[in-house]
Amino acid sequence: MTAKRGEHRSVVVILGEDDNDRKTIQILVAALRTDIPRGSLKPLRKPMSLVRNVPLQRLPSQSSKAAALLRAVDVNTPIRAVLMHEDADEVEPAHEKLITKIEDSHRSLRWPVLAVVPAWEMETWWFLFPDAVHAIRPTWRRPDQFAGRDVGKIRNAKEELKKAVTPPGARPSFQTYTEADSIAIAEKIVTLGQLTAPWFARSASWETFLDKVKQL
User: Fold this and answer.
1) What pLDDT is stored for residue 8 in this prediction?
2) Which end of the chain has fewer CB atoms < 10 Å from its terminal CB, N or C?
């Protein structure tokens, strides 16, 4: 027998730039909001909702396409809220402007839309947790050169993290950081109990992310 709509548990849809980002956000949100079952956090490959480089006149059309796809999900699985991830690709406080653009351009949606915007990239946040980064690959150096500093000012964070974990004299074949490692790093942060602990450094975009998760 087909279940009635009211019998379905509502979900938080996670949209992002790629599968690694969506899965990473799912892990972090599930740990921060234990009242929301992990199975109720639903990563979706589509719709892509990147707006950073979209002209203002095209935003309504893009929002309409996103709405149509999300309504299709909502028919069988009621949506509680939508998390939309996009990297700022600039240092802080660039994340603030992009958050506003994402959320304002999707206000016509019937569900709350909360933007997840790391400055520069999600790798910026991993500099807050050098123990977790080092723990997933003991051959890596501990990326601890930003102790007590504002990691939100790191440019090209992904490349900087690759360099930070690579030991001097490493062979060209050395397995350095890749985007897929974000999932394991997020899991390790949770396992080590560091997610809500005082952080190794500072990041305004990370603190904003925590505030957004509280709003779910």
Assistant:
1) 55
2) N
